[in-house]
Design a protein that fits this description.
It contains 4 helices and 14 strands. It is 28% helix and 25% strand. By secondary structure, the protein is α+β, with helices and mostly antiparallel strands. It has a single domain, classed as Creatine Amidinohydrolase, CATH 3.90.230.10.
Length: 255
């Protein structure tokens, strides 16, 4: 079911957005050569407890997950594109790390993701991150009253193709509100002028993710982590966005 949020409800969601942004900033800053992924998850968990927030991940068990997620932060490294399950791995020089985090504050949820390079960057990884970030910006810019979901999807897809990347549409953006995942689904490619008309009060996550060499993925033996079929590296960016009469508002904006 698609729900429209009142201006007052959108304002209340800002607190969750500020918190989610702060956790991503803290975990990104803590990500360095030699740091364990489990240490990053613990940092996020400690921040949740201190803020009195609730994790959207720890008990999450959708049909595509082998078991409840069991952690509070997604840490996807190199060929891991999405849903990276934190495990005993120490970051290495040149790793591409995507951090994805969602939490509930006072009953309202926001969801966001960022990709960084640990240590020494490679040109092809910098290019991938740049295109994925710009695709998010393009999708957000299209989230205006009078447009349709297809306009968001097409804007994302256009940036990806211009950068030379193919697009997987199995996972994409989604409604956000009282829960982490809801309607509508927002694919990372589509046709402009198609799909749900955008109205003030819609709140959803927009999340482009691309891989350097393929658009195919497989599920790791951990039952959660989605990896590129050819072992190429991936990047993922995401923001929770409210559609308003004054234009799109990014609720998970980072400082």
């Amino acid at each position: 079911m698609i729900e429209l949020r009142t201006p007052a409800e959108i304002e209340r969601m800002r607190a969750a957005g500020v918190f989610v942004a702060s956790v991503l900033e803290a975990t990104a800053q803590a990500s360095a050569v030699g740091v364990n992924l489990l240490t990053l998850d613990k940092l996020a968990h400690d921040m949740i407890r201190k803020a009195g927030a609730e994790s959207c991940y720890i008990d999450y068990h959708p049909s595509f997950g082998a078991s409840p997620f069991g952690k509070v932060l997604c840490t996807s490294v190199n060929d891991a594109a999405l849903h990276g399950l934190p495990h005993d791995y120490r970051l290495r020089d040149g790793d591409v790390l995507s951090l994805d985090f969602a939490a509930s504050v006072d009953g309202w949820v926001t969801d966001s993701a960022i990709t960084i390079i640990v240590g020494t960057p490679r040109d092809e990884d910098l290019a991938l991150i740049d295109v994925t970030s710009r695709a998010l910006d393009a999708g957000i810019a299209a989230a205006t009253v009078g447009n349709r979901i297809g306009d968001i999807s097409a804007a994302i897809g256009d940036v990806a193709r211009a950068g030379g990347y193919s697009i997987n549409t199995d996972f994409g953006g989604h409604g956000v509100g009282r829960t982490m995942h809801g309607d509508p689904h927002i694919p990372n490619d589509g046709r402009p002028g198609r799909g749900l008309p955008l109205r003030a009060g819609l709140v959803f996550a927009i999340e482009p993710w691309f891989m350097i060499g393929t658009d195919r993925i497989y599920t790791d033996k951990d039952g959660w982590t989605l990896r590129s079929a050819d072992g190429s590296r991936a990047a993922h960016f995401e923001h929770t966005v409210a559609v308003t009469d004054d234009g799109p508002v990014i609720l998970s904006a980072r400082s």
